[in-house]
Amino acid sequence: MKSEEFATAAMSEHYTLRQLNLLVREAIEDALPDEYWVEAELSECRENSGHCYMELIEKDERSNTPVARASAKCWRQTWQMAKPYFERTTGQPLRAGMKVLLKVYAQFHEAYGFSWIISDIDPTYTLGDMARKRQEIIRQLKEEGVFDLQRELRIPTFAKRIAVISAQNAAGYGDFCRQLEDNEYGFRFEVTLFPAIMQGEQVEQSIINALNQIYELQSNHTSHHSSLTSHFDCVVIIRGGGATADLSGFDTLALAENVAQFPLPIITGIGHERDESILDMISHTRVKTPTAAAAFLIDHLRNVWERITNAEDFINRHISERIRYQQQRINQLGTLIPTLALRVLSDQRHRIELLENRLPVAIERRMTTQKHLLESLSLKLQGFDPQLLLSRGYSITLHNGRAVRDPKQLQPGDEIETRIEKGTIKSIVK
Predict the structure, then answer these.
(1) Which of 9, 140, 222, 265 is the most buried (most CB within 10 A)?
(2) How remote is the C-alpha of 296 from its chain's centroid?
(3) 96 within 8 A of 53, measured Cβ to Cβ
(4) C-alpha 254: how far from chain center
(5) CA 268 vs CA 171, 271, 410: distances in Å
(6) What's the predicted TM-score (pTM) here?
(7) Which residues of 52-82 are buried (b: 16+ CB within 10 A; e: fewer)?
């Protein structure tokens, strides 16, 4: 403010707003003449006409509530150099929620108010904060026992039904599909796309939503079919991009937990050159690019095909060897059969001759034995002849043709017949 303006203001005992702001400007310039390195978190970051406008915030570490706020501007001339350097170093663009270390100086404009003007940005500070957050997420995943869950899954032998999470019109998705379709082995894959936002702050929730859709389809299929069948064999998360692409959405705890506990193997081909993201670490298989993901699936089927071919060759060789072995046995038996047949015939002929010599003696011995048995039986029968008993003085009394053994069998007046050696006597019972 010029001295005459102050004099005029002093004489009138009041200031115009411009005069007051000029006074503030000079006070700030006198009190804060230097540049300062300041640590802060970005609550907002936007570009406009080549300039970058940021809202800075500091939060209480215990309550996470804001304790300080300020606006900062990075003019075009500085921003054109700071932005690419920051992205090359960190692999990410400046975004809300990121911790930054800025070199600033104070500026108060009588028309636009106070702002911190950024003259430099230190990306190594942000890189260190990102690494710290990544390590914290990894530590938590390991404590939860889910860090290695994906690697315990097995990619199905015939993995052909692929659920893909990618931006619908992304070049990486097109490259992935062409690689699968044009494979030299003629394998046929069934690809189902689940569109998702693959860059920016919506990456996390968008991919989680896509995983939920896949899980729902998988669950519905399992409930209507055998538990041994699946709607999809694996999930592929792909997108194109280079080293400067925004990968912050792939380094979040919520996404990592969803991927780690997903029931299907997940293959990532995010397409970046820097160190792997947490999503890469937690997935079943990590490859560099979408085309590498397609090559991995093709190689998987090729390995299966080679195993089948090798097994087929082994079976054919084994069968051929068994056929040759059995043919040799048949040939050997063919030469042995005549000799064996002659030997058997000779043995049987000798047995017949022995039997012929033994048969007459055996027959004669058998007949003598049976003759003696008949004579013995004949003598026994003679002992039971009734006539022999009558000749010895015994008699037999009959009534109605039956022998009388008990007098009680007879009644007075019954006619009985008594047989003796020389005849028969008939009597009447009194």
Answers:
(1) 265
(2) 18
(3) no
(4) 22
(5) 16, 9, 122
(6) 0.60
(7) bebbbbeeeeeeeeeeeeeebbbeeebbeeb
- Residue 243 burial by Cβ neighbours in a 10 Å radius (0-12, 13-18, 19+): middle
Within 10 Å of residue 262's Cβ, how many Cβ atoms? 21
Nearest partner of 99 among 140, 138, 41, judged by Cα: 41
What are the structure tokens assigned to 232, written together? 């999809």
Cβ atoms of 96 and 201 within 8 Å: the answer is yes
Contact predicate 266/237, CB 8 Å: yes
Question: Residue 67 carries which side chain, given as an amino acid letter?
Answer: V
**Residues in the chain, total:** 430
| pLDDT in 10s for each residue of the chain, 430 residues | 455 665 565 556 788 888 888 888 889 888 888 999 999 999 999 999 999 999 999 998 888 888 999 999 999 999 999 999 998 888 788 988 889 999 999 999 888 889 999 999 999 999 888 888 888 999 999 999 999 999 999 999 999 999 999 998 888 999 999 999 999 999 999 999 999 998 877 899 999 999 999 999 888 766 665 544 568 999 999 987 544 446 778 889 999 999 999 999 999 998 765 567 899 999 999 998 999 999 999 999 999 999 999 998 899 999 989 999 988 888 888 888 888 878 888 888 888 888 888 888 888 888 888 888 888 887 777 766 777 777 777 788 888 888 888 888 888 888 888 888 788 888 898 8
